[in-house]
Amino acid sequence: MTDAALPTTWEPLPDAEAEVTSLTQELIRIDSSNWGDAPETVGEAEIADYCAQRLREVGYDPEVYSTTSDSRRGVYLRIPGTDPDAGALLLHGHIDVVPAMADDWSRPPFEAQEDDGFVWGRGAVDMKDMDAMILAVTRSWARNGIRPRRDVVVLFLPDEEAGSLHGSRWLADHRPDMFTGVTEAVGEVGGFSVTVRDDLRLYPIQTAEKGIRWLLLRARGQAGHGSMINDDNSVTALAEAVTKVGRHEWPLRRTKTVDKFLDELSEAYGVDLTSGDIQSVVARLGTLGYLVGATMQNTANPTMLTAGYKHNVIPGEATAAIDGRVLPGYEDELEATIRELVGSGIDLETVVNDDAIEAPFDTATVDLMASVLRAEDPHAHAVPYMISGGTDAKAFTRLGISCYGFSPLKMPADLDYWRLFHGVDERVPVDGLRFGVRVLDRFLRAV
Fold first, then answer.
1. What is the largest CA-CA distance in the chain?
2. Is the peptide bond before 154 cis (omega within 30 degrees of 0)?
């Protein structure tokens, strides 16, 4: 990965840096917790209206769209570029957050307090910080008459935290007009710093995601009284099957993105990962280190068990949920292996089947990401990586769009970025937000 040439005429946007913190706070204070299809999921409509209003204030004419109901709302805006022949860039952020239990937090999760150099609150890094950066940069463009080189399509999306059925997946199926001419997309999760030493910070750029295979194991047997001998007990059969799946050691698999990531880690930490000394690196990466193992193999974790209705009644049926995650190129391995593990007496049902994705990283766009990071942090080194979860990028990839996670954020060396995701006391550094505005603006104007 090499640095791309940057324009020499770039000037910072002091107004964007000045307001990004308050925008982040205002977004956090709108409780957009995603409770799935429960009636408590209502905040997406309010936050979509907020984003649209902030864009209208500076002269844009965004569309507030609804997907499956009036409460599932988002915002669409296309900013025309100066080069009509260039492919458009999709810039997207989700506006929903996972719920937060206030009693577990040291500060109220929806008050967005600024304290100790951080903004605290649910969504601070996932991903209202990026939403605020998008608003800050585009609002400044409007004030200062700045246009990007290529069309920039801005999407604020609902329902990412519950599978995107009411958000990006719905838009991909029903609103192809929004994606006219779009060739690449930028969203979460990437561009954050991991400090190796004072003169080296890694900035992982997400170029790949594992796929999702949520499976349901179903065992059927003979119902009966709990006091009787029963050789056809559905709970016993299910428990044996779940144990086999949960204890299975999946073989290591190598993909292009992970191979590149491991090469970069080896060089950064001075460890030969091909020799099997991966644990020493994992320990120094915090929770990011868990990705190293999780992205080198398929995984299948039992997560829920359901059976019976009374202590002394053997049920005729028992079910178990399996959260399966698959690597690009190894999608068929997971289901075939689980079928072999559980045997013919257990039914296997696919509940969610979402693609693994992998975008090219030897591109001018990724090189530009590396360049703009180094322009703001001389010790930055961009590396491609894969996440074990999923984002809205899955829906956009189906449209032929190359998707990248690039939400730039410089983090303090002692703060574990990944523990903040969906975690207690989620927070974002104020200096990191301003850094993100500068990097994002440089990138969007040059891409």
1. 83
2. no
Alpha-carbon distance of 383 to 348, in angstroms, equals 38
Give CA separation, 129 vs 15, 126, 144, 231, 429, in Å.
16, 7, 22, 56, 10
CA distance 306 to 411: 42
Task: Kindly state the DSSP code that residue 409 receives in the 8-state scheme.
Answer: B
CA 262 to CA 114: how far, in whole Å? 37
């779940």: which residue's tokens?
242
Contact, 355 vs 394, CB < 8 A?
A: yes
Q: Is the peptide bond before 127 cis (omega within 30 degrees of 0)?
A: yes
200-209 vs 357-358, strand pairing mode: antiparallel
* Residue of 100, 168, 161 lying closest to 127 (CA atoms): 161
Amino acid at 382: A
Judging by DSSP bridges, how do beta strands 357-358 and 317-326 pair with one another? unpaired
- 325 strand-pairing partners: 212, 299
Q: What are the tens digits of pLDDT across the range 185-206?
A: 999 999 999 999 999 999 999 9
All residues at 6 or more sequence positions from 9 whose CB lies less than 8 Å from its CB, including other chains: none
Which run of H or E residues covers position 439? Answer: helix 430-446
What amino acid is encoded at 47 in this protein?
I
Cβ atoms of 295 and 386 within 8 Å: the answer is yes
- Write out the two tokens for 286: 């915090």
Residues 339, 342, 345: CA angle, nearest 5 degrees: 100
Pair 120, 129: CB distance under 8 Å: no
What confidence tens digit (pLDDT) does each residue in 84-123 have? 899 999 999 999 999 999 999 999 999 999 999 999 999 9
Q: Which residue has the tokens 């290529």?
A: 150
What count of other Cβ atoms lies within 10 Å of the Cβ of residue 156? 29
